[in-house]
Amino acid sequence: MIQIIDYGMGNLRSVQKAFESLGHEATICTDPKALATAEKVVLPGVGAFRDAIGQLQAHGFVEPIRDYVAGGRPFLGVCLGMQLLFDVSYEDGEYAGLGIVPGKVVRFDSQPGLKIPHMGWNALEVVAPNPLFADVPSGSHVYFVHSYFVAPDDEAVVAARTFHGQPFVSVIARDNLFATQFHPEKSQRTGLKLLENFARL
Fold it and tell me: Most buried in the list 35, 109, 143, 194, measured by CB within 10 Å?
């Protein structure tokens, strides 16, 4: 059973419908205690980092998420759900994240002609194979909407990069932990294949 964490922010139903279209049962999780028995967990997210980490704290999800990831079961962060895994974000201030992946969340550098937020289709440059990329070749296009991106301390977690004025990390993978800066549920065939690969872990 795939549990999609509901902390008041995120494209929950879109992610759920994507899994269901692939024939995989996915439920919306509002009870942090349910993570203790979950087989797979997805942390989606749309909006501001400060609000999201505050909602995770208010709903009691912070420690259960940390415990779940430490337990070795498959976990997928999506967009803001990827950024929340890191130590700190500098979005409109400085805010501590979940601290599961060492590193920070930073804004794109302003450049003449560069559109921020980065919104629309862009290509993945796969730099390290992992199970999410089964039958997903480097150069595949996926859908982004973001102004900030992650900067991991350890390059070993970087699975793919994308270019928007500068190269940025678009996928991370470490053991049972996976996260994408883009929205798989909005990325048509490629995104559905990634979700299928996650569901089959």
Answer: 194
Per-residue pLDDT reduced to its tens digit, 80-113: 999 999 999 999 999 999 999 999 999 999 999 9
Model pTM score: 0.97
Domains and CATH numbers, the chain: 2-199 (3.40.50.880)
The one catalytic residue among 29, 146, 185, 196: 185
| From 79, 118, 146, 196, the catalytic residue | 79
The catalytically annotated residue of 118, 146, 164, 183 is 183
- Please confirm, yes or no, whether 155 is among the known catalytic residues: no
pLDDT in tens, 120-168: 999 999 999 999 999 999 999 999 999 999 999 999 999 999 999 999 9
Whether 79 is catalytic is yes
Length of the chain in terms of residues written: 201
Residue 84, token pair as written in the block: 């929340």
Q: Is position 185 annotated as part of the catalytic site?
A: yes
